[in-house]
Every structure is written in structure tokens, then in C-alpha cells.
Design goal:
By secondary structure, this protein is α/β, with parallel strands linked by helices. The protein is about 45% helix and about 15% strand. The chain has two domains: about 210 residues, Periplasmic binding protein-like II (D-Maltodextrin-Binding Protein, domain 2, 3-Layer(aba) Sandwich), CATH 3.40.190.10; about 180 residues, D-Maltodextrin-Binding Protein, domain 2. It starts with 14 loop residues before the first helix and ends with a helix. The relative contact order is 0.18.
């Protein structure tokens, strides 16, 4: 897997918007009431993909301080993301001084933090403040639920969708993006020109880039309770074989083939006609490759569906928080309809609230259409605790052997299943 997906965020805090938000959240407190309470400080930590992200979040927190003047937010972003972010937090948890509010990522991070009781359940706060939890996509919220308890409120997400180079499609005489596996393979073949180091599809072979093909064929990686691997089911083998054959045919390749570090970069360089990516690619292209002509579409459908993976990130309150009530007010502020609307207007993420997919902002930025259309048909990317190393090594190594023709797709999946099930059995 590619570990943690990129996240970029923003906010525009103002007194008038914040006041309206307070009423919408139903927090039951007013600015006057808040001013009479004892001052407290809550610490918020997350990762940042760029200095701009920290600046924008800081600006949004200024709006929060106007509504709750006696709740001071100490924003302490943690350098980097992925394993570094999680490693820093683990050290803080051991020391008993974790931040009050943290970003909780997809993948194995959410399941690990919940299994370790690093987060407190939010159900009582949700109920007492009449927070509109029913507006959230189930696919994103379920990632932070366990045993009927909610441990995180999703702040943003993005599914994988198909990014395609409209100029390349036009030059190849392709009128519209592929809608089926057969069309995807045919278009990738037509758009590939090895002499020019241009390929129909460029993506890594990490698990998030092939798992959706298993689901689209009616299979999957694990069962719903994540107690048993299902990689060797006939449907899973069919989906994985399709993915592997794209690479074996030469119509798809990995980013390093064209001197890129990831698929989005290869796409921006004009070396990939198509790439499977999320909303994080849009600001990257706009900032780094402004001359690229592209659009988005839902993923081509397999034999069963065109389901995709989505990558939500949530706010959670840690067990070390000395002021969980104040921490909840912060989360409710940032993830309310008004708060999330401010966040989304940056164009760096997609909403986890269903009611916000029709924001005027998206109508003004039609490139997001394919991503938004994919949201209802997506499942959250995750795996049980203890699988970070397995997913980033064994799964990648086996898929590399498969696309290089050194193992059959079925054998690669069998090897992954054997190793993965062994980890599950030992943990149980």
C-alpha cells in the first residue's frame, strides 16, 4: 500500500460564520456562556502536506476562538505523515501526553488506535449536542466505528477516480473515458507509445491501486469483519488477473519507468494518459503542472460494479485529553456543515457529509465531477492492526513478481493470503 494518502485542508474563519455554525451544531452554548467558563487549552495535532495547509487551518481556528474565547487551541502539526506521524503519536501515548485532538488516518491507523484504546468514544457528545451524524457517508464514518461506538468524525475524504488526459484522448480519437474493463484495456493500448515513454496507465502496484479491481469483480481482500482473507476466491483472482495483465501487456507501467516517483507525477509529466488517483492530485497538478489538460471520471466498471476505495481522515479525542468537552466543541465546529463547507471551498478535499456534494463550489469546478460521482459507490480503505509492514512489503513484492511474469496472479494472491492469514491467526 502507499501508506497515507495526501491530505490538504483550508479554512476561512469569521465571527458571523462561526456564530451561525454554533447554532447549527446545537452545542447548547453561546459566546456569552463560554466567556464565563474557566479558560482551558486544547492541543490539536495532525500532519501537513504543505505550509499552506497549516496556515489555512490556523486561520480557521481563529474563527473558533471568537465563538469560544476561553478555549485556546494550541495547534501543533507533526512533521510528515504516514509512519512518522503514527510513530510520533505512539511515543506520546506511551508518555501519557498525547494531544487532545488528532487526525486519525485511514488504512491501519484507525483500527490500531481503536484497538489500543487510544481514543475515547464520542457517542455521548454527539447525542448531547444534537450533532448531525446522519449526514455523513457511511463508508467514511464506519472506518472510525467499533462495537457501536464512534471514535472519530471524518473531516474529509477522497475516492480513487479515473484521471485522464483530454488532449491525449482527443489526439487518439477517443471520444470519452472508458466505462468498462474492456474499454480501459483498449484505450490504454491505443494511448501507449513506448518509443515516447508514454503509457496508457501509470500507477504503483501498491494494494490501494489493485484492490478495487477485486471488489469490482465481486471479490475482495478480506471479509467484512477483517477476520479472514478472501484473496484466493475466484472473483478476487479474476480482478487481480485483469490488473496484472494490464502491466504484462505493456499498456500500464509503474511510475519509475518514466522517472516519476508516483502516478500523479507521471500524469503531470504527460507520460501517463490515465491514472487512478484521488482529489489530492488536483491541487498538485494545478500548482506543479498547470499546462496539463485533464478531467476526471468514475472508475470503469468490472463484471459486478465500479466500486472504488475512499480515504477518509477524521478528528478524534485522545484518552490523554484533560479537556474532552472542549475538544469536542472544536471537532463539532470544524466538522459541522458550515465548518466543512469552509474546508471544501479550498478545493483540496471532498466532503464526508452527503449534503455538501452539491455545493456551488463544485459546479464552478467541474473537474471534480468524476470524483463526486464516485463517492456513493466507494468503500473505506483499511486493514487490521499489525499490517502496515506486510502491506508495504509482502503485498508489493508479490504484485511486482506477478506483473514481471515471475509468478502467476493466482500464486501471488495465494502467497499474500497465506502470510496475511498467519498474522491474523497469531493476533487472534
Amino acid at each position: 500500500m502507499n501508506g497515507k494518502m495526501r491530505r490538504s485542508v483550508q479554512g476561512l474563519g469569521s465571527l458571523s460564520v462561526a456564530a451561525a455554525l454554533l447554532a447549527a451544531c446545537g452545542s447548547g452554548a453561546s459566546t456569552a456562556a463560554a466567556s464565563k467558563s474557566q479558560p482551558v487549552t486544547v492541543t490539536l495535532s495532525g500532519w501537513t502536506s504543505s505550509p499552506v495547509e497549516a496556515q489555512l487551518l490556523t486561520k480557521d481556528l481563529q474563527g473558533f476562538s471568537k465563538v469560544y474565547p476561553n478555549i485556546h487551541v494550541n495547534y501543533q502539526p507533526i512533521s510528515g505523515s504516514g509512519s512518522n506521524y503514527e510513530s510520533v503519536l505512539r511515543t506520546r501515548f506511551v508518555a501519557g501526553d498525547a494531544p487532545d485532538v488528532i487526525y486519525v488516518n485511514n488504512g491501519g491507523e484507525s483500527s490500531t488506535f481503536m484497538a489500543n484504546n487510544d481514543l475515547i468514544p464520542l457517542n455521548s457528545y454527539i447525542a448531547s449536542s444534537h450533532f448531525s451524524i446522519g449526514d455523513f457517508y457511511k463508508s467514511s464514518l464506519s472506518l472510525f466505528e467499533k462495537g457501536g461506538k464512534i471514535y472519530g468524525i471524518p473531516k474529509d475524504q477522497s475516492p480513487l477516480a479515473l484521471f485522464y488526459n483530454t488532449q491525449m484522448f482527443q489526439q487518439a480519437g477517443i471520444a470519452h473515458p472508458p466505462t468498462t474493463w474492456a474499454q480501459l484495456a483498449a484505450d490504454a493500448k491505443l494511448l501507449t507509445d513506448p518509443a515516447k515513454h508514454v503509457y496508457g496507465l501509470i500507477n504503483s502496484v501498491q494494494e490501494p491501486r489493485w484492490a478495487q479491481f477485486l471488489y469490482q469483480a465481486g471479490g475482495g481482500v478480506m471479509n467484512s469483519s477483517m477476520t479472514k482473507f478472501t484473496l484466493t476466491s475466484p472473483a478476487s483472482v479474476r480482478g487481480y488477473t485483469y490488473f496484472v495483465n494490464l502491466y504484462r501487456s505493456g499498456y500500464a507501467t509503474v511510475p519509475t519507468t518514466v522517472g516519476a516517483s508516483w502516478g500523479g507525477q507521471a500524469f503531470g509529466m504527460g507520460k501517463a494518459a490515465m491514472v487512478l488517483s484521488g482529489n489530492w492530485l488536483i491541487p498538485f497538478l494545478n500548482q506543479t503542472y498547470p499546462g496539463i489538460h485533464y478531467n476526471t471520471a468514475v472508475l470503469p466498471s468490472g463484471p459486478v460494479s465500479n466500486v472504488s476505495l475512499t480515504f477518509p481522515v477524521a478528528y478524534g479525542i485522545t484518552r490523554d485529553s484533560k479537556h474532552p468537552g472542549a475538544a469536542w466543541k472544536l471537532i463539532a465546529y470544524l466538522t459541522s456543515r458550515s465548518g466543512m463547507t469552509r474546508w471544501m471551498k479550498l478545493g483540496l478535499a471532498l466532503p464526508t457529509r452527503k449534503s455538501l456534494v452539491s455545493l456551488p463550489y463544485y459546479q464552478q469546478h467541474p473537474v471534480t465531477k468524476g470524483l463526486l460521482a464516485q463517492l456513493p459507490n466507494s468503500i473505506a480503505w483499511t486493514f487490521p492492526p499489525g499490517f502496515v509492514q506486510f502491506s508495504s512489503t509482502t503485498m508489493v513484492d508479490q504484485t511486482t513478481l506477478a506483473i514481471e511474469g515471475k509468478e502467476s496472479p493466482a500464486q501471488a494472491l495465494a502467497n499474500m493470503q497465506q502470510g496475511g492469514q498467519s498474522i491474523l491467526n497469531s493476533a487472534g
